[in-house]
Amino acid sequence: MQEWLYLVIGIAVVGVLAIAGFVGTRVRRSGRLPEGTSTDVLTTPVETPPATAEAPVVEAPAEVEPEPEVAPAPSLETPEKPASRLVRLRQRLAGSNALGRGLLGLLSRDQLDEDTWEAMEDLLLAADIGVAPTQELVERLRTRLRVEGGKTPDARTVLREELINLVDPTMDRALKVSGEGDAPGVVLVVGVNGTGKTTTVGKLARILVADERTALLAAADTFRAAATEQLATWGDRVGVEVVRGPEGGDPASVAFDAVKQGMDRGVDTVVVDTAGRLQNKQGLMDELGKVKRVIDKQSPVTEVLLVLDATTGQNGLIQAKVFSEVVDVTGIVLTKLDGSAKGGIVIAVQRQLGVPVKLVGLGEGPDDLAPFDAAAFVDALLG
Predict the structure, then answer these.
(1) Around Cβ 260, how many Cβ atoms within 10 Å?
(2) What φ, ψ does residue 309 adopt, rounded to 5°?
(3) Residue 155: is its pLDDT beyond 80?
(4) Which pLDDT tens digit goes with each residue over 21-30?
(5) CATH superfamily of 82-167
(6) Beta-carbon count within 10 A of 116 CB
(7) At 216, is the secondary structure helix, strand, or coil?
(8) What homologous superfamily is domain 185-372 in, according to CATH?
(9) Using CA atoms, how far apart are residues 319 and 48, in angstroms rounded to an integer?
(10) How many angstroms separate the CA atoms of 96 and 156, rounded?
(11) pTM of the entire structure?
(12) What is the pLDDT of residues 132-145, one digit of tens each?
């Protein structure tokens, strides 16, 4: 009985093994993993047997050096012509200055009594015209409006004429930017810090270029590195070269070199920027006088421009007096005249120094510097 049992069990085992073998064969034929193969085979790198023959060496193509980039030449700005610049500046001044409007308002009253004339004096004094010019103007207005009044006095016409007379249209306001013979004109620009002196030098260079003149700038403000860089920027914009020296160097030496180069190159005008000196520092003022003397040994200084901030009022007049004693100022540049009621300083500074206002600056733009004209200035004030 046991023998039969063992026989049946053996037949069953053989049958199972036979079926398993048949199924395994079908799996291998269908692309499935062989029996007993681990799935680690998928992540195990397959080692490539060493090549029996040397593979041909393929040389990499030679690197081609890129051509050097050529920086484009700096584009030079074309400065605005003085004529159109002056028209634009008149419009700006007319829209910002309250002096003329205030005067016209007082003269338009039905009755010009003592209170009106006193109010006019206060307005003129507040505009920094000065005591003597104020009294002179008020007295002439009172006389003319009383004598020439007629049926309907034209207060505006009378005011315009008297203001023009006060500004003095007979003064020579031409910029002396030319030298005698082959010598260049030399313009020395002076003034205290903060008045816009270096900016004025840059804008003056634009005016010279607009007039088709050749120019050279001298960065003689060697005590302030920012001034030299600022001047160089202005020069780059209009194609005018800047002569500079070492920081803290001798300003007179820089000015001397600039004038010498100007003579050698035959340029029309050399413009010299100087340090912004305080009027109460006698040593610095003496040094400014030295700069002028050194320049004069080569070529005479043809113009000394004093840059004044129109908003400083009477303090600007003190500066003007001290500078004129040191370097013989020949012309005034009034900056920051826009948006200010200090337009009367034009009259006051001319009276004190006996020299004309030649240029006015009415903004921060590169062409916001224009020749001064008495009639145009008054017309702008009166709107």
Answers:
(1) 15
(2) -85, 120
(3) yes
(4) 544 444 444 4
(5) SRP54, nucleotide-binding domain (1.20.120.140)
(6) 14
(7) strand
(8) P-loop containing nucleotide triphosphate hydrolases (3.40.50.300)
(9) 93
(10) 19
(11) 0.75
(12) 999 999 999 998 88
